[in-house]
# Entry
Amino acid sequence: MTYCVGLKLKAGLVLLSDTRTNAGVDNIGRFKKMFVYEQPGERVVALMTAGNLGITQGVVTKLEQAVKHSRSDTEIESLLTCDTLYRGAQMVGEAMREVQKRDRAEIEAQGAAADATVIMAGQRKGGELRLFQIYTAGNFIEASEDTPYFQIGEHKYGKPILDRVIRPDTTIDEAVKAALVSMDSTVRSNLSVGMPLDLCVLPVNAFHAKTQRIDSDHPEFKQISASWAASLRAAFNSLPSVKL
# Structure
């Protein structure tokens, strides 16, 4: 399993993913779940994946091949050359449907699940910040002011902090902290989600990704985790007792 979260703010986009894959309690590995493509000053697009690893790697490979070929031939449509990021989300959905059509029956015949989801985020010059969630069937939804974040994978443990904190006018610094607390809560409660983490920030109109790998000994993450745990204990201890 995995956990990825994408936040859409007026100030930019914040993305965070773990790197753990789990095919059983004794078969745990690390695989990157975040992929960033950019044309400096023109466009930046990021993907995060969850679900069947074979499916998601197949989808990402198809999209990356198109990006690679479009760098030398602008007539080739890719995430970096498509007219709109909405069209980019359609391309992710098309790749998902193609890989599902090719591999799903065989995967399920072996007793495994073939479901997969993708979060796509980015901005092109002259366009707005966009955040999409693409489903197994290739259909997708877009984030809005009413729903300014998406989660994929093992999302339930990290949702409460996002519901309480994230608003369109939340600052990037606050959103990064919220995303890290959300991930820390998930890592503590689910063994199928684990370090290291990949953090990506896409400031509005920058058309450039700020990325960082966060390991278990990352000083600020350790401090956030410890401070959040201490604050929760203090808040719990301050609650009134119920008279029986």
Q: What stands out?
A: The CA atoms of residues 223 and 229 lie 10 Å apart. The chain has one domain: 3-234. The first helix runs from residue 53 to 72. The mean pLDDT is 95.
